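In the previous chapter we treated chains in isolation. Here, by contrast, the input contains two separate entities that must be folded as one system, with a combined length of 609 residues.
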Amino acid sequence: MVVASPFQNNTEEVKILDLHNLTLHEIRDMIRSGEVSAKDVLQSVYGRIDAVDDKVDAYIALTRDKAYEAAEAIDKRLAGGEALGDVAGIPMALKDNISTNGIKTTCASKMLENYTPAFDAHVYEKLKEAGAILIGKTNLDEFAMGSSTENSAFKTTKNPWNLDRVSGGSSGGSAAAVAAGEAFFALGSDTGGSIRQPASLCGIVGFKPTYGAVSRYGLVAFGSSFDQIGPFTKDVEDCAIVLNHLYGYDKNDSTSLAVEHGDFKEALNKEIKGMKIGLPKEYFGEGIAPEVKKLVMDGVKVMESLGAHVEETSLPYSEYALPVYYIASSAEASSNLARFDGVRYGYRAKDYEDLNDLYIKSRSEAFGDEVKLRIMLGTYTLSSGYYDAYYNKALKARRLIKQDFEKAFEKYDILISPTSPTTAFKIGERSDDQLAMYMSDICTVPVNIAGIPAISIPCGFSGGLPVGMQIMGKALGEASIIKAAHAFQRNTDFLGKRPTL
Amino acid sequence: MKKPSRNGLKGGNDMIEKKDLEYVAALAKLKLREEDLEKVREKFSMVLDYVSMLNKLDIEEVEPLINVNGMTNVMREDEVGESMNRETLLANAPEKMYGCIKVSKIIE
Protein backbone atom coordinates (compact mmCIF):
# COMPACT_ATOMS: atom_id res chain seq x y z
CA MET A 1 0.00 0.00 0.00
CA VAL A 2 1.34 3.41 -0.87
CA VAL A 3 1.03 5.98 1.89
CA ALA A 4 0.38 9.38 0.37
CA SER A 5 -2.27 12.04 0.10
CA PRO A 6 -5.14 11.09 -2.19
CA PHE A 7 -4.97 13.73 -4.89
CA GLN A 8 -1.95 14.81 -6.90
CA ASN A 9 -2.51 18.24 -8.51
CA ASN A 10 -4.94 17.90 -11.43
CA THR A 11 -4.39 14.22 -12.23
CA GLU A 12 -7.08 11.66 -11.40
CA GLU A 13 -4.39 9.54 -9.77
CA VAL A 14 -5.59 8.13 -6.48
CA LYS A 15 -3.18 6.81 -3.86
CA ILE A 16 -4.72 4.44 -1.36
CA LEU A 17 -3.88 5.09 2.26
CA ASP A 18 -2.75 2.29 4.55
CA LEU A 19 -5.32 2.65 7.29
CA HIS A 20 -6.77 -0.81 7.69
CA ASN A 21 -4.94 -1.73 10.91
CA LEU A 22 -6.25 1.28 12.80
CA THR A 23 -9.19 1.22 15.19
CA LEU A 24 -12.58 2.89 14.74
CA HIS A 25 -11.74 5.62 17.27
CA GLU A 26 -8.38 6.35 15.63
CA ILE A 27 -10.04 6.74 12.22
CA ARG A 28 -12.76 8.87 13.79
CA ASP A 29 -10.13 11.22 15.21
CA MET A 30 -8.37 11.44 11.85
CA ILE A 31 -11.65 12.25 10.10
CA ARG A 32 -12.50 14.89 12.69
CA SER A 33 -9.10 16.55 12.47
CA GLY A 34 -9.36 16.61 8.68
CA GLU A 35 -6.30 14.40 8.26
CA VAL A 36 -8.36 12.01 6.11
CA SER A 37 -11.73 12.22 4.43
CA ALA A 38 -14.48 9.61 4.62
CA LYS A 39 -13.73 8.86 0.98
CA ASP A 40 -10.03 8.23 1.79
CA VAL A 41 -11.04 5.80 4.50
CA LEU A 42 -13.44 4.01 2.19
CA GLN A 43 -10.82 3.72 -0.56
CA SER A 44 -8.39 2.28 1.95
CA VAL A 45 -10.88 -0.35 3.10
CA TYR A 46 -11.93 -1.37 -0.42
CA GLY A 47 -8.24 -1.50 -1.34
CA ARG A 48 -7.70 -3.90 1.53
CA ILE A 49 -10.72 -5.99 0.54
CA ASP A 50 -9.48 -6.19 -3.05
CA ALA A 51 -6.08 -7.29 -1.77
CA VAL A 52 -7.13 -10.00 0.69
CA ASP A 53 -10.76 -11.07 0.45
CA ASP A 54 -10.15 -13.67 -2.25
CA LYS A 55 -8.12 -15.41 0.47
CA VAL A 56 -10.36 -14.68 3.46
CA ASP A 57 -13.82 -14.90 1.77
CA ALA A 58 -15.44 -12.74 4.46
CA TYR A 59 -17.87 -10.98 2.10
CA ILE A 60 -20.87 -12.27 0.18
CA ALA A 61 -21.52 -8.91 -1.49
CA LEU A 62 -20.00 -5.43 -1.59
CA THR A 63 -21.96 -2.18 -1.87
CA ARG A 64 -19.33 0.05 -3.46
CA ASP A 65 -21.52 2.57 -5.30
CA LYS A 66 -23.85 3.25 -2.39
CA ALA A 67 -20.86 3.43 -0.04
CA TYR A 68 -19.04 6.08 -2.09
CA GLU A 69 -22.26 8.10 -2.32
CA ALA A 70 -22.62 7.97 1.44
CA ALA A 71 -18.96 8.92 1.96
CA GLU A 72 -19.36 11.91 -0.33
CA ALA A 73 -22.39 13.04 1.63
CA ILE A 74 -20.50 12.74 4.92
CA ASP A 75 -17.50 14.66 3.53
CA LYS A 76 -19.84 17.46 2.38
CA ARG A 77 -21.38 17.76 5.85
CA LEU A 78 -17.93 17.81 7.47
CA ALA A 79 -16.73 20.44 5.02
CA GLY A 80 -19.76 22.49 6.00
CA GLY A 81 -18.49 22.51 9.57
CA GLU A 82 -21.09 20.10 10.94
CA ALA A 83 -20.05 18.24 14.10
CA LEU A 84 -20.81 14.56 13.54
CA GLY A 85 -20.95 11.60 15.95
CA ASP A 86 -18.52 8.77 16.68
CA VAL A 87 -19.34 6.52 13.72
CA ALA A 88 -19.74 9.15 11.01
CA GLY A 89 -17.74 8.13 7.93
CA ILE A 90 -16.73 4.80 9.48
CA PRO A 91 -16.96 1.82 7.09
CA MET A 92 -18.90 -1.10 8.58
CA ALA A 93 -19.99 -4.58 7.48
CA LEU A 94 -23.28 -6.32 8.26
CA LYS A 95 -23.89 -10.05 8.60
CA ASP A 96 -26.07 -11.11 5.69
CA ASN A 97 -29.05 -12.00 7.89
CA ILE A 98 -29.59 -8.33 8.74
CA SER A 99 -32.11 -6.70 6.39
CA THR A 100 -30.92 -3.89 4.17
CA ASN A 101 -33.47 -2.11 1.98
CA GLY A 102 -32.68 -2.59 -1.70
CA ILE A 103 -29.61 -4.71 -0.95
CA LYS A 104 -29.80 -8.51 -1.16
CA THR A 105 -30.01 -10.29 2.17
CA THR A 106 -29.33 -13.95 1.53
CA CYS A 107 -28.77 -15.52 4.97
CA ALA A 108 -26.12 -17.55 3.04
CA SER A 109 -28.94 -19.77 1.76
CA LYS A 110 -30.20 -20.81 -1.66
CA MET A 111 -33.63 -20.06 -0.21
CA LEU A 112 -32.91 -16.32 -0.15
CA GLU A 113 -30.18 -16.08 -2.77
CA ASN A 114 -32.18 -13.50 -4.72
CA TYR A 115 -34.19 -11.93 -1.91
CA THR A 116 -34.06 -8.16 -1.50
CA PRO A 117 -35.71 -6.70 1.61
CA ALA A 118 -38.00 -3.71 1.24
CA PHE A 119 -37.03 -2.30 4.62
CA ASP A 120 -34.00 -1.69 6.81
CA ALA A 121 -33.27 -3.48 10.05
CA HIS A 122 -33.69 -1.08 12.97
CA VAL A 123 -29.97 -1.23 13.84
CA TYR A 124 -28.97 -0.47 10.25
CA GLU A 125 -31.31 2.52 10.17
CA LYS A 126 -29.80 3.86 13.39
CA LEU A 127 -26.21 3.41 12.20
CA LYS A 128 -26.98 4.95 8.80
CA GLU A 129 -28.50 7.96 10.52
CA ALA A 130 -25.35 8.29 12.63
CA GLY A 131 -23.29 8.33 9.43
CA ALA A 132 -21.74 4.87 9.40
CA ILE A 133 -21.11 3.55 5.87
CA LEU A 134 -22.10 0.04 4.77
CA ILE A 135 -19.31 -1.60 2.73
CA GLY A 136 -20.90 -4.99 2.24
CA LYS A 137 -22.73 -8.04 3.61
CA THR A 138 -20.73 -10.76 5.25
CA ASN A 139 -20.79 -14.56 5.10
CA LEU A 140 -22.42 -16.73 7.75
CA ASP A 141 -23.55 -20.27 8.40
CA GLU A 142 -26.88 -20.71 6.61
CA PHE A 143 -29.67 -19.04 8.62
CA ALA A 144 -27.14 -18.57 11.44
CA MET A 145 -27.05 -22.29 12.19
CA GLY A 146 -23.46 -23.34 12.74
CA SER A 147 -20.12 -22.56 14.33
CA SER A 148 -17.75 -22.24 11.37
CA THR A 149 -19.48 -20.78 8.24
CA GLU A 150 -19.00 -24.23 6.69
CA ASN A 151 -22.80 -24.43 6.51
CA SER A 152 -22.97 -21.40 4.21
CA ALA A 153 -24.50 -22.29 0.85
CA PHE A 154 -21.88 -20.15 -0.87
CA LYS A 155 -18.44 -20.49 0.73
CA THR A 156 -16.43 -20.98 3.90
CA THR A 157 -14.78 -17.95 5.48
CA LYS A 158 -11.12 -18.48 6.40
CA ASN A 159 -9.46 -17.42 9.63
CA PRO A 160 -7.16 -14.42 8.89
CA TRP A 161 -4.60 -15.82 11.39
CA ASN A 162 -4.37 -19.14 9.52
CA LEU A 163 -6.20 -19.64 6.24
CA ASP A 164 -6.50 -23.43 6.77
CA ARG A 165 -8.68 -22.82 9.80
CA VAL A 166 -12.25 -21.71 10.33
CA SER A 167 -13.18 -18.18 11.33
CA GLY A 168 -15.88 -19.49 13.64
CA GLY A 169 -19.60 -19.04 13.27
CA SER A 170 -22.20 -18.34 12.60
CA SER A 171 -21.00 -14.71 12.19
CA GLY A 172 -17.63 -15.85 10.79
CA GLY A 173 -17.64 -13.40 7.89
CA SER A 174 -18.13 -10.35 10.13
CA ALA A 175 -15.43 -11.52 12.54
CA ALA A 176 -12.91 -12.25 9.78
CA ALA A 177 -13.64 -8.92 8.07
CA VAL A 178 -12.77 -6.92 11.20
CA ALA A 179 -9.75 -9.11 12.06
CA ALA A 180 -8.36 -8.80 8.52
CA GLY A 181 -8.79 -5.02 8.40
CA GLU A 182 -11.63 -5.31 5.86
CA ALA A 183 -14.01 -3.27 8.06
CA PHE A 184 -13.58 -1.03 11.10
CA PHE A 185 -16.50 -2.69 12.79
CA ALA A 186 -19.14 -5.21 11.85
CA LEU A 187 -22.43 -6.46 13.19
CA GLY A 188 -23.30 -10.08 13.76
CA SER A 189 -26.05 -11.99 15.51
CA ASP A 190 -25.65 -14.26 18.53
CA THR A 191 -28.12 -17.05 19.30
CA GLY A 192 -25.82 -19.57 21.02
CA GLY A 193 -22.46 -17.83 20.75
CA SER A 194 -22.42 -16.75 17.11
CA ILE A 195 -20.71 -13.42 17.86
CA ARG A 196 -18.50 -14.40 20.79
CA GLN A 197 -17.08 -17.65 19.40
CA PRO A 198 -15.92 -16.18 16.05
CA ALA A 199 -14.56 -13.14 17.92
CA SER A 200 -12.54 -15.54 20.07
CA LEU A 201 -11.26 -17.55 17.10
CA CYS A 202 -10.36 -14.39 15.15
CA GLY A 203 -8.70 -12.51 18.02
CA ILE A 204 -11.08 -9.54 18.23
CA VAL A 205 -13.76 -8.17 20.55
CA GLY A 206 -17.33 -9.47 20.21
CA PHE A 207 -20.29 -8.46 22.37
CA LYS A 208 -23.72 -10.01 22.91
CA PRO A 209 -26.15 -7.54 24.53
CA THR A 210 -28.74 -8.35 27.20
CA TYR A 211 -31.72 -10.01 25.51
CA GLY A 212 -34.10 -7.25 24.46
CA ALA A 213 -31.54 -4.45 24.67
CA VAL A 214 -31.02 -4.30 20.90
CA SER A 215 -33.96 -4.46 18.50
CA ARG A 216 -34.30 -7.63 16.42
CA TYR A 217 -36.48 -5.90 13.84
CA GLY A 218 -34.96 -6.78 10.48
CA LEU A 219 -32.83 -9.65 11.80
CA VAL A 220 -33.99 -12.80 10.03
CA ALA A 221 -35.22 -14.82 12.97
CA PHE A 222 -33.61 -18.10 14.01
CA GLY A 223 -34.31 -18.60 17.74
CA SER A 224 -36.43 -15.65 18.71
CA SER A 225 -35.93 -15.96 22.46
CA PHE A 226 -32.14 -16.25 22.05
CA ASP A 227 -31.21 -13.97 19.12
CA GLN A 228 -29.41 -10.65 19.70
CA ILE A 229 -27.48 -8.41 17.33
CA GLY A 230 -24.07 -7.19 18.50
CA PRO A 231 -20.76 -5.66 17.37
CA PHE A 232 -17.34 -6.96 16.34
CA THR A 233 -14.55 -4.44 16.96
CA LYS A 234 -10.77 -4.31 17.28
CA ASP A 235 -10.88 -3.05 20.86
CA VAL A 236 -13.12 -2.32 23.84
CA GLU A 237 -13.36 1.43 23.23
CA ASP A 238 -14.69 0.78 19.71
CA CYS A 239 -17.14 -1.73 21.21
CA ALA A 240 -18.54 0.85 23.64
CA ILE A 241 -18.93 3.31 20.77
CA VAL A 242 -20.90 0.90 18.60
CA LEU A 243 -23.07 -0.32 21.48
CA ASN A 244 -24.16 3.27 22.06
CA HIS A 245 -25.66 3.22 18.58
CA LEU A 246 -27.39 -0.15 18.88
CA TYR A 247 -29.22 0.00 22.19
CA GLY A 248 -32.67 1.43 22.61
CA TYR A 249 -36.35 0.71 22.55
CA ASP A 250 -37.95 -0.13 19.19
CA LYS A 251 -41.74 -0.29 18.88
CA ASN A 252 -41.35 -2.77 16.02
CA ASP A 253 -39.79 -5.41 18.30
CA SER A 254 -42.17 -6.48 21.03
CA THR A 255 -39.33 -8.01 23.03
CA SER A 256 -37.47 -4.71 23.00
CA LEU A 257 -36.65 -3.24 26.41
CA ALA A 258 -37.45 0.38 27.19
CA VAL A 259 -34.52 1.18 29.47
CA GLU A 260 -32.09 4.06 29.56
CA HIS A 261 -28.64 2.64 28.88
CA GLY A 262 -26.50 5.76 29.25
CA ASP A 263 -23.16 6.25 27.51
CA PHE A 264 -21.13 3.04 27.49
CA LYS A 265 -17.95 5.08 26.99
CA GLU A 266 -18.29 6.14 30.63
CA ALA A 267 -17.35 2.59 31.66
CA LEU A 268 -13.95 2.97 29.97
CA ASN A 269 -10.79 3.93 31.88
CA LYS A 270 -12.14 2.81 35.24
CA GLU A 271 -10.31 1.00 38.04
CA ILE A 272 -11.51 -2.48 38.93
CA LYS A 273 -10.17 -2.58 42.48
CA GLY A 274 -12.63 -4.48 44.62
CA MET A 275 -14.58 -5.91 41.69
CA LYS A 276 -15.92 -9.37 42.58
CA ILE A 277 -15.21 -11.97 39.91
CA GLY A 278 -16.62 -15.50 39.90
CA LEU A 279 -15.09 -18.42 37.96
CA PRO A 280 -17.80 -21.06 37.39
CA LYS A 281 -15.94 -24.34 37.74
CA GLU A 282 -18.12 -26.12 35.18
CA TYR A 283 -16.57 -23.92 32.46
CA PHE A 284 -12.98 -24.92 33.28
CA GLY A 285 -13.31 -28.69 33.31
CA GLU A 286 -12.53 -31.46 30.85
CA GLY A 287 -13.41 -30.48 27.33
CA ILE A 288 -11.51 -27.18 27.62
CA ALA A 289 -8.11 -27.37 25.91
CA PRO A 290 -5.30 -26.94 28.48
CA GLU A 291 -3.65 -24.03 26.63
CA VAL A 292 -6.97 -22.20 26.50
CA LYS A 293 -7.55 -22.74 30.20
CA LYS A 294 -4.03 -21.53 31.01
CA LEU A 295 -4.34 -18.32 29.00
CA VAL A 296 -7.75 -17.49 30.49
CA MET A 297 -6.39 -18.10 34.01
CA ASP A 298 -3.42 -15.85 33.18
CA GLY A 299 -5.99 -13.22 32.22
CA VAL A 300 -7.80 -13.71 35.50
CA LYS A 301 -4.47 -13.17 37.32
CA VAL A 302 -4.14 -9.85 35.50
CA MET A 303 -7.53 -8.83 36.91
CA GLU A 304 -6.43 -9.95 40.37
CA SER A 305 -3.25 -7.90 40.09
CA LEU A 306 -5.49 -4.89 39.45
CA GLY A 307 -7.28 -5.43 42.74
CA ALA A 308 -10.24 -7.59 41.75
CA HIS A 309 -11.33 -10.39 44.10
CA VAL A 310 -11.51 -13.73 42.32
CA GLU A 311 -13.28 -16.82 43.60
CA GLU A 312 -14.34 -20.16 42.22
CA THR A 313 -18.10 -20.63 42.02
CA SER A 314 -20.57 -23.09 40.56
CA LEU A 315 -23.48 -23.01 38.12
CA PRO A 316 -24.81 -26.52 38.81
CA TYR A 317 -27.29 -26.80 35.94
CA SER A 318 -24.62 -25.92 33.32
CA GLU A 319 -24.41 -29.46 31.96
CA TYR A 320 -27.99 -29.16 30.69
CA ALA A 321 -27.33 -25.97 28.74
CA LEU A 322 -26.47 -27.55 25.38
CA PRO A 323 -29.48 -29.92 25.38
CA VAL A 324 -31.78 -27.05 26.41
CA TYR A 325 -30.34 -24.89 23.66
CA TYR A 326 -30.58 -27.46 20.88
CA ILE A 327 -34.14 -28.35 21.79
CA ALA A 328 -35.49 -24.84 22.34
CA SER A 329 -33.63 -23.04 19.55
CA SER A 330 -34.44 -25.79 17.03
CA ALA A 331 -38.10 -25.67 18.08
CA GLU A 332 -38.14 -21.91 17.55
CA ALA A 333 -36.28 -22.29 14.26
CA SER A 334 -38.78 -24.84 12.95
CA SER A 335 -41.48 -22.27 13.57
CA ASN A 336 -39.54 -19.28 12.24
CA LEU A 337 -38.47 -21.02 9.05
CA ALA A 338 -42.00 -22.19 8.24
CA ARG A 339 -42.48 -18.89 6.41
CA PHE A 340 -40.07 -20.06 3.69
CA ASP A 341 -42.57 -21.95 1.60
CA GLY A 342 -41.86 -20.85 -1.97
CA VAL A 343 -44.99 -18.69 -2.08
CA ARG A 344 -44.38 -14.99 -1.37
CA TYR A 345 -40.58 -14.65 -1.59
CA GLY A 346 -37.47 -16.76 -1.78
CA TYR A 347 -36.81 -19.86 -3.81
CA ARG A 348 -39.69 -21.55 -5.60
CA ALA A 349 -39.23 -24.99 -7.15
CA LYS A 350 -39.62 -25.21 -10.92
CA ASP A 351 -41.72 -28.36 -11.11
CA TYR A 352 -44.44 -29.26 -8.63
CA GLU A 353 -47.76 -31.06 -8.79
CA ASP A 354 -49.84 -29.15 -6.28
CA LEU A 355 -49.54 -26.68 -3.42
CA ASN A 356 -48.25 -29.22 -0.93
CA ASP A 357 -45.65 -30.34 -3.44
CA LEU A 358 -44.69 -26.69 -3.97
CA TYR A 359 -43.93 -26.34 -0.27
CA ILE A 360 -42.03 -29.61 -0.02
CA LYS A 361 -39.94 -29.21 -3.18
CA SER A 362 -39.10 -25.52 -2.58
CA ARG A 363 -37.96 -26.15 0.99
CA SER A 364 -36.16 -29.42 0.30
CA GLU A 365 -34.28 -28.06 -2.69
CA ALA A 366 -33.28 -24.75 -1.11
CA PHE A 367 -32.45 -25.51 2.53
CA GLY A 368 -29.03 -26.93 3.43
CA ASP A 369 -28.49 -30.09 5.46
CA GLU A 370 -27.93 -28.50 8.86
CA VAL A 371 -30.99 -26.27 8.47
CA LYS A 372 -33.14 -29.29 7.59
CA LEU A 373 -31.74 -31.25 10.52
CA ARG A 374 -32.58 -28.51 13.01
CA ILE A 375 -36.03 -27.92 11.56
CA MET A 376 -36.76 -31.63 11.92
CA LEU A 377 -35.37 -31.75 15.44
CA GLY A 378 -37.53 -28.79 16.37
CA THR A 379 -40.60 -30.29 14.72
CA TYR A 380 -40.07 -33.56 16.55
CA THR A 381 -39.69 -31.98 19.97
CA LEU A 382 -42.80 -29.86 19.45
CA SER A 383 -44.93 -32.66 18.09
CA SER A 384 -47.77 -34.26 19.97
CA GLY A 385 -46.50 -36.90 22.37
CA TYR A 386 -43.03 -35.38 22.64
CA TYR A 387 -43.82 -31.76 23.56
CA ASP A 388 -43.77 -32.34 27.32
CA ALA A 389 -40.75 -34.63 27.38
CA TYR A 390 -38.57 -32.36 25.28
CA TYR A 391 -39.73 -28.80 24.65
CA ASN A 392 -41.57 -28.12 27.89
CA LYS A 393 -38.86 -29.87 29.87
CA ALA A 394 -36.23 -27.73 28.15
CA LEU A 395 -38.13 -24.58 29.15
CA LYS A 396 -38.19 -25.75 32.77
CA ALA A 397 -34.46 -26.46 32.70
CA ARG A 398 -34.02 -23.03 31.12
CA ARG A 399 -35.50 -21.41 34.20
CA LEU A 400 -33.08 -23.35 36.43
CA ILE A 401 -30.08 -22.33 34.34
CA LYS A 402 -31.20 -18.68 34.48
CA GLN A 403 -31.63 -18.95 38.25
CA ASP A 404 -28.06 -20.28 38.59
CA PHE A 405 -26.82 -17.03 37.02
CA GLU A 406 -29.13 -14.83 39.11
CA LYS A 407 -27.80 -16.44 42.28
CA ALA A 408 -24.21 -16.01 41.13
CA PHE A 409 -24.75 -12.32 40.35
CA GLU A 410 -25.96 -11.72 43.89
CA LYS A 411 -22.39 -12.46 44.94
CA TYR A 412 -20.30 -11.43 41.91
CA ASP A 413 -20.12 -8.42 39.59
CA ILE A 414 -18.95 -10.51 36.63
CA LEU A 415 -18.22 -14.14 35.78
CA ILE A 416 -15.24 -15.18 33.65
CA SER A 417 -14.75 -18.28 31.50
CA PRO A 418 -13.09 -19.29 28.25
CA THR A 419 -15.19 -18.27 25.23
CA SER A 420 -14.39 -21.31 23.10
CA PRO A 421 -13.03 -24.63 24.40
CA THR A 422 -10.38 -24.65 21.67
CA THR A 423 -8.62 -22.37 19.23
CA ALA A 424 -9.80 -22.36 15.60
CA PHE A 425 -10.17 -25.89 14.24
CA LYS A 426 -9.18 -26.90 10.69
CA ILE A 427 -11.68 -26.45 7.88
CA GLY A 428 -13.43 -29.80 7.41
CA GLU A 429 -12.27 -31.16 10.77
CA ARG A 430 -15.69 -31.11 12.46
CA SER A 431 -18.11 -30.94 9.54
CA ASP A 432 -18.93 -34.64 9.83
CA ASP A 433 -18.92 -34.78 13.61
CA GLN A 434 -22.24 -33.28 14.61
CA LEU A 435 -21.70 -33.28 18.36
CA ALA A 436 -18.10 -32.02 18.19
CA MET A 437 -19.37 -29.05 16.19
CA TYR A 438 -22.12 -28.40 18.75
CA MET A 439 -19.58 -28.58 21.59
CA SER A 440 -17.88 -25.43 20.18
CA ASP A 441 -20.63 -23.50 21.94
CA ILE A 442 -20.46 -25.12 25.36
CA CYS A 443 -19.30 -21.94 27.14
CA THR A 444 -21.37 -19.47 25.16
CA VAL A 445 -24.81 -21.08 25.00
CA PRO A 446 -25.73 -20.67 28.71
CA VAL A 447 -25.49 -16.89 28.27
CA ASN A 448 -28.24 -16.89 25.62
CA ILE A 449 -30.34 -19.24 27.72
CA ALA A 450 -30.23 -16.78 30.61
CA GLY A 451 -30.59 -13.69 28.39
CA ILE A 452 -27.57 -11.98 30.00
CA PRO A 453 -24.86 -9.91 28.27
CA ALA A 454 -21.30 -11.12 27.60
CA ILE A 455 -18.13 -10.10 25.78
CA SER A 456 -15.26 -12.08 24.28
CA ILE A 457 -11.88 -10.37 24.38
CA PRO A 458 -8.49 -11.63 23.14
CA CYS A 459 -6.34 -12.98 25.99
CA GLY A 460 -3.43 -14.60 24.19
CA PHE A 461 -2.28 -16.94 21.45
CA SER A 462 -1.71 -20.67 21.29
CA GLY A 463 0.07 -22.13 18.29
CA GLY A 464 -0.31 -18.78 16.53
CA LEU A 465 -4.09 -18.87 16.99
CA PRO A 466 -6.09 -16.42 19.15
CA VAL A 467 -7.70 -17.38 22.44
CA GLY A 468 -10.68 -15.48 23.85
CA MET A 469 -11.81 -14.80 27.40
CA GLN A 470 -15.54 -14.48 28.05
CA ILE A 471 -16.78 -11.96 30.61
CA MET A 472 -20.44 -12.35 31.59
CA GLY A 473 -22.60 -9.82 33.41
CA LYS A 474 -26.07 -9.76 34.89
CA ALA A 475 -28.99 -8.62 32.75
CA LEU A 476 -28.36 -4.95 31.80
CA GLY A 477 -24.97 -5.17 33.57
CA GLU A 478 -23.04 -4.10 30.46
CA ALA A 479 -21.11 -1.39 32.31
CA SER A 480 -19.33 -3.88 34.60
CA ILE A 481 -18.32 -5.99 31.60
CA ILE A 482 -16.93 -3.00 29.70
CA LYS A 483 -15.15 -1.75 32.82
CA ALA A 484 -13.39 -5.08 33.36
CA ALA A 485 -12.67 -5.67 29.68
CA HIS A 486 -11.16 -2.23 29.20
CA ALA A 487 -9.03 -2.56 32.34
CA PHE A 488 -7.76 -5.86 30.92
CA GLN A 489 -7.06 -4.23 27.56
CA ARG A 490 -5.07 -1.38 29.16
CA ASN A 491 -2.88 -3.85 31.04
CA THR A 492 -2.15 -6.33 28.23
CA ASP A 493 -1.16 -5.98 24.59
CA PHE A 494 -3.31 -8.65 22.91
CA LEU A 495 -5.76 -6.17 21.42
CA GLY A 496 -3.06 -4.49 19.38
CA LYS A 497 -2.08 -7.61 17.44
CA ARG A 498 -2.96 -7.94 13.72
CA PRO A 499 -2.65 -10.95 11.41
CA THR A 500 -0.30 -10.82 8.42
CA LEU A 501 -2.08 -11.50 5.14
CA MET B 1 -18.74 -29.48 31.57
CA LYS B 2 -18.81 -33.10 30.49
CA LYS B 3 -18.43 -34.16 26.89
CA PRO B 4 -21.47 -36.07 25.66
CA SER B 5 -21.10 -39.85 25.42
CA ARG B 6 -21.98 -41.61 22.21
CA ASN B 7 -23.73 -44.93 22.64
CA GLY B 8 -22.46 -46.33 19.33
CA LEU B 9 -25.64 -45.56 17.49
CA LYS B 10 -24.77 -47.33 14.28
CA GLY B 11 -27.87 -49.40 13.53
CA GLY B 12 -29.75 -51.12 16.29
CA ASN B 13 -32.83 -50.07 18.22
CA ASP B 14 -31.49 -46.76 19.48
CA MET B 15 -31.94 -44.98 16.19
CA ILE B 16 -35.14 -43.32 15.12
CA GLU B 17 -37.21 -45.51 12.78
CA LYS B 18 -36.91 -44.59 9.12
CA LYS B 19 -40.66 -44.16 8.85
CA ASP B 20 -40.75 -41.87 11.90
CA LEU B 21 -38.00 -39.71 10.42
CA GLU B 22 -39.91 -39.47 7.15
CA TYR B 23 -43.06 -38.57 9.13
CA VAL B 24 -41.25 -35.75 10.97
CA ALA B 25 -39.85 -34.50 7.68
CA ALA B 26 -43.33 -34.49 6.14
CA LEU B 27 -44.68 -32.50 9.11
CA ALA B 28 -42.02 -29.90 8.35
CA LYS B 29 -42.84 -29.96 4.63
CA LEU B 30 -39.49 -31.54 3.81
CA LYS B 31 -38.59 -34.63 1.84
CA LEU B 32 -35.18 -36.25 2.27
CA ARG B 33 -33.49 -37.89 -0.69
CA GLU B 34 -33.31 -41.68 -0.53
CA GLU B 35 -29.49 -41.63 -0.62
CA ASP B 36 -29.34 -39.18 2.31
CA LEU B 37 -31.84 -40.96 4.56
CA GLU B 38 -29.42 -43.24 6.41
CA LYS B 39 -26.90 -40.48 7.12
CA VAL B 40 -29.59 -38.09 8.35
CA ARG B 41 -31.10 -40.88 10.43
CA GLU B 42 -27.74 -41.37 12.16
CA LYS B 43 -27.16 -37.65 12.77
CA PHE B 44 -30.70 -37.04 13.96
CA SER B 45 -30.58 -40.01 16.33
CA MET B 46 -27.24 -38.92 17.74
CA VAL B 47 -28.49 -35.42 18.50
CA LEU B 48 -31.78 -36.69 19.89
CA ASP B 49 -29.94 -39.13 22.10
CA TYR B 50 -27.72 -36.33 23.38
CA VAL B 51 -30.53 -33.90 24.17
CA SER B 52 -32.48 -36.71 25.87
CA MET B 53 -30.02 -36.19 28.72
CA LEU B 54 -32.74 -33.88 30.06
CA ASN B 55 -34.56 -37.05 31.17
CA LYS B 56 -32.15 -37.15 34.12
CA LEU B 57 -33.86 -34.10 35.60
CA ASP B 58 -36.85 -34.49 37.88
CA ILE B 59 -38.33 -30.98 37.63
CA GLU B 60 -42.10 -31.37 37.32
CA GLU B 61 -42.83 -28.51 39.73
CA VAL B 62 -40.64 -25.96 37.89
CA GLU B 63 -42.46 -23.37 35.77
CA PRO B 64 -41.35 -23.31 32.12
CA LEU B 65 -39.46 -20.09 31.31
CA ILE B 66 -41.07 -18.54 28.24
CA ASN B 67 -40.15 -14.86 28.32
CA VAL B 68 -36.48 -14.68 29.17
CA ASN B 69 -36.58 -10.98 30.06
CA GLY B 70 -39.85 -11.19 31.93
CA MET B 71 -41.93 -9.22 29.44
CA THR B 72 -45.51 -10.19 28.72
CA ASN B 73 -48.44 -8.85 26.68
CA VAL B 74 -46.85 -5.95 24.86
CA MET B 75 -49.68 -3.86 23.38
CA ARG B 76 -50.02 -0.78 21.27
CA GLU B 77 -52.79 1.70 20.54
CA ASP B 78 -55.17 0.56 17.81
CA GLU B 79 -54.08 3.22 15.35
CA VAL B 80 -53.92 2.81 11.60
CA GLY B 81 -50.40 3.23 10.22
CA GLU B 82 -48.88 3.32 6.77
CA SER B 83 -48.92 0.15 4.70
CA MET B 84 -46.20 -0.80 2.24
CA ASN B 85 -47.22 -0.39 -1.37
CA ARG B 86 -48.24 -3.36 -3.46
CA GLU B 87 -45.34 -3.13 -5.91
CA THR B 88 -42.78 -3.24 -3.12
CA LEU B 89 -44.47 -6.20 -1.53
CA LEU B 90 -44.69 -8.15 -4.78
CA ALA B 91 -41.11 -7.43 -5.83
CA ASN B 92 -39.82 -10.70 -4.37
CA ALA B 93 -42.75 -12.86 -5.47
CA PRO B 94 -41.66 -15.76 -7.72
CA GLU B 95 -44.74 -15.53 -9.96
CA LYS B 96 -47.22 -12.69 -10.22
CA MET B 97 -50.44 -11.93 -12.06
CA TYR B 98 -53.08 -9.22 -11.77
CA GLY B 99 -51.26 -7.65 -8.84
CA CYS B 100 -51.39 -10.90 -6.89
CA ILE B 101 -49.00 -13.74 -6.12
CA LYS B 102 -49.62 -16.72 -8.37
CA VAL B 103 -49.68 -20.22 -6.91
CA SER B 104 -51.02 -23.53 -8.10
CA LYS B 105 -54.69 -24.37 -7.94
CA ILE B 106 -55.92 -25.01 -4.40
CA ILE B 107 -59.63 -25.62 -5.00
CA GLU B 108 -60.79 -28.69 -6.82
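Chain A touches chain B through 81 residues (CB under 8 Å). Chain A has one domain: 24-323+392-496. Compare these points with the single-chain example from earlier in the chapter.
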